[in-house]
Amino acid sequence: MMATIKDIAKDAGVSISTVSHVINKTRYVSPELVKRVEDALRQAGTPPNFVIKKLRAERDAVTNRFIALFYAEERAFFAELKETMSRQNLALLMVNYRNTAELLAMNDLLASPACAAILVCAGTFPDKAAQLLPDYTAPKIAIGEPVEGADLTLDLDSVGSTRRAIRHLVRSGHENILFLSNSLTRTAPQIGEYCRMLTQSDIAVHENLICLSVGGELELFEKMDALMSKAPAPTAVFMAEPDFAAPLLRYISSRNIQCPEHLSIISAVDFEWAPLLQPPLSAVSYNNSQVADTLTGLTCHILENSSDNMLSAANCGVRSKLILRNSTRGIARGPFGERAESADKLVISENDAEQIASGRYTAAVSFHYTGQAWMDLITKGMTDVFKGLGINIIATTDAHFDPELQCRQLESIRHLHPDIIIGVPTDAQKTSAAFKSAADDSKLIFLTGVPTEFTRNDYVTCVSVNDRSQGRYIGQKLGEYMEQYHLTKVGLLKHNALFSATNQRDSAAEQVFLEEFDNIKIAATGTFNHENDAYTATLDLIRNNPQIQALYVPWEGPARKVIHALTDIGRQDIAVGTGGLDLDSAKILGAGGMIKVLSAQQPYEQGRAVALAAAGALLGRDVPSFIAVEPIGVHPGNLEAAWKEIFKDEAPLELREILRTNPQYHKTV
Fold first, then answer.
1. Position 309 confidence tier, pLDDT thresholds 50, 70, 90
2. Share of the chain above pLDDT 90, in %
3. What's the DSSP call for residue 242?
4. Of the candidates 242, 266, 285, which is a domain's last residue?
5. d(CA 491, CA 548)
6. pLDDT single digits (tens) 30-64
7. 137-166: pLDDT as tens digits
8. Which of 40, 104, 313, 354 has its Cα between 20 and 30 A from that of 460?
9. What range defines the domain where residue 86 resides?
10. Is position 356 within any domain?
11. What is the DSSP letter of 419?
């Protein structure tokens, strides 16, 4: 008996309306549900009457020559392709070649002279598509992956997409990157590029991280369990096919793996529902209009010329672009390349606190400079924890960014014999010997960076912001601002010091502009050694490169000097992106001034992490060698709430009044 729509819905485990939407393509349906409906239709044998009616209507609507599009999964460019073909008076007949019912109903039409060309978007089933092509005489164009029997292939830059994805992950600190694919044959060029990019970066290629021919969801779960349970466990996944997205996200959810905190994911295909996932999936994309225009141009060329005179496949292609969403995160790396750990791992019990308090320990702090909100909040975070543990801060020094002064101050601190010394080096080389001497009798903890000539065993830990995240946020949001206002020339003002924290931040920001914004070019790069140098460095940079329209600055101290310099030369039109929140930068951002983008550290949390790490060291415990705290992105819409979160207090009245006058401000409760 012929199946009804109700039977198909029951067999697929979906509603009748979902079946209707799949057949008629009247609403978005997830690929998983589409597959279940199509499988139910195939198992029904004879096509149900409602399917036959629909296919006959489509077939009868085709009265002139048409272009057939064989597909297995929906692609984002299909809608634009249909419109572009229509403008050339070409009808586009879409045929799901995995749906036997559709093929049977359309077979005569596809084999007729009316079928001028067949476009084949084979997706993950190229062998199935190849089996069908000999049945039809029309010229055939494969889209993306080559398909046996196709006359021409439009390259969607699969190798280039792999290069961009792996390069981004490597530059973001990932080394153990899982390549996930269903087919060795189809993805062999991509696997080659994956291996080449790792080798080029002096990263070992682990064969077990090239995971091929993964069958159903159960097999994926089993393989992922095996990979995650032993070294080298992947920190990132590159999916060669979008089919893995749903089961992979279900896997990490079932295993309490956080994306992107524990595992970053990039898809080789920017499929239609990638931005709708949680988290939205980073993916390699291409300009849909360019794909549609190129395919339409190739088709028109074929119609106007014989198949013997077709263009060479080598000349047909589009360039891909990496679209970064929330499924990827950079890995902060410590001074010895170690992966950052979360401060959440630092736990002190009540018994631990009592034991530490009985020791009557002392601590001293050697700052690179003071008088800024960052240092004040670091101190408050440390003090709040130390008070509860009975640890007394007996000295706090300010080196005024002078390495020689800091060395003398450290010598004075040594004579106080503190149990703990917390230091922010002014210069990684010039202060190294002084810090080493200080560590002879005290447990040493660094903030933001470690001096040269230190080994991992010479200090307890280093605590910092996730500088990769901070640099990336500044770069990305400044780039988005530039695109919004059609700005194309950015300048970078980097910290010219051997300082791992700012070096990582600067590199991450630069990486964003090199990889993510095709229309934005880095016009020039300037450097400064100390904050006060930023004024002159800005004057030189802008006078020599007046075309600069936006400027990256690594933190708010030099950013104030930059704004001063730009104001003095009448270049208040230049947009500034920087890191660090204090009252001055908040007022400029809140008033719609020159600072357009701001990524704020959480210094209070960093201070707490320092104190908890010190407590762990006093108890004789192993403390992670590098601890990173995530920054907070700040904009006028969340500035008041961000201030409260960072400073643990309400925003000052003068800032709140400034915000009320900014149309971009929306009070966050």
1. very low
2. 56
3. G
4. 285
5. 6
6. 767 777 887 887 777 666 776 666 655 555 544 46
7. 899 999 987 888 888 888 888 898 999 999
8. 354
9. 5-156+290-318
10. yes
11. S
Which residue in 187, 160, 67, 182 sits closest to 120, CA to CA?
Answer: 67
Residue with tokens 């999916």: 239
260 lies in the same domain as 347: no
- Cα dihedral 52, 54, 58, 60, rounded to 10, equals 60
Contact criterion met (CB below 8 Å) for 325 and 472: no
- Residue 397, beta-bridge partner list: 366
Chain position carrying tokens 């696997």: 191
Contact 435, 444 (CB under 8 A): yes
Average pLDDT over residues 506-533: 92
Full strand arrangement of the beta sheet holding 115-121? 91-96, 66-71, 115-121, 140-143, 152-154
350 is a domain residue: yes
Q: Do 271 and 295 fall into the same domain?
A: no
Phi, psi (5° rounding) for residue 624?
-50, 140
Task: Single out the residue in 270, 301, 318 at which a domain terminates.
Answer: 318
C-alpha 464/C-alpha 220 separation (Å) is 36
- Write the pLDDT tens digit of every residue in 182-222: 877 778 899 999 999 999 999 999 999 998 877 788 999 99
Amino acid at 215: G
Find the CATH number of the domain harbouring 635.
3.40.50.2300
Which pLDDT belongs to residue 210?
94
Nearest-Å Rg of the Cα atoms of the chain is: 30
Strands (E), 601-652: 626-629, 632-634
Q: Which pair of tokens denotes residue 134?
A: 């000999």
Query: How many independent structural domains does the chain possess?
Result: 4
In a domain, 332, yes or no: no
Bridge partners (DSSP) listed for residue 283: 267, 323
Asked if residues 159 and 127 have their Cβ atoms less than 8 Å apart, the reply is no
Residue 56's pLDDT is: 57
- Claim to verify: residue 425 and residue 516 sit in the same structural domain: no
- Residue 233, strand partner residues: none
Q: If you search the block for the tokens 């993805």, which residue do you land on?
A: 187
Confidence check: pLDDT of 593 > 60: yes
* Least confident stretch, 203-207, 248-252, 282-286, 606-610: 282-286
Looking at the DSSP assignment, which residues form a beta bridge with residue 578?
598
Quick one: 197 and 151 in the same domain?
Answer: no
Bridging pattern class, strands 521-528 and 282-286: unpaired
Q: pTM of the full predicted structure?
A: 0.70
Q: How far apart are CA 66 and CA 36, in angstroms?
A: 29
The answer, yes or no, to whether residue 668 has pLDDT greater than 50, is no
In a domain, 402, yes or no: yes
Rounded to whole angstroms, how far apart are CA atoms 471 and 5?
54
- Tell whether 517 and 562 lie within a shared domain: yes
- The span from the CA of 437 to the CA of 424, in Å, is 15
Do residue 43 and residue 179 come from a single domain?
A: no
- Residues 595 and 551 grouped into a single domain: yes
Average pLDDT, the chain: 88
The two structure tokens encoding residue 75? 């692609």
| 323 Cβ contact partners less than 8 Å away, ≥ 6 residues apart | 270, 282, 283, 284, 285
* % pLDDT > 70, the chain: 93
The two three-digit tokens of residue 121, written as one number: 């978007």
Same domain, 200 and 123: no
- β partners of residue 627: 341, 463
pLDDT in tens, 77-136: 888 999 999 998 889 999 888 887 778 888 888 998 889 899 999 876 778 888 989 989
Q: Report d(CA 647, CA 80) in Å as an integer.
A: 49
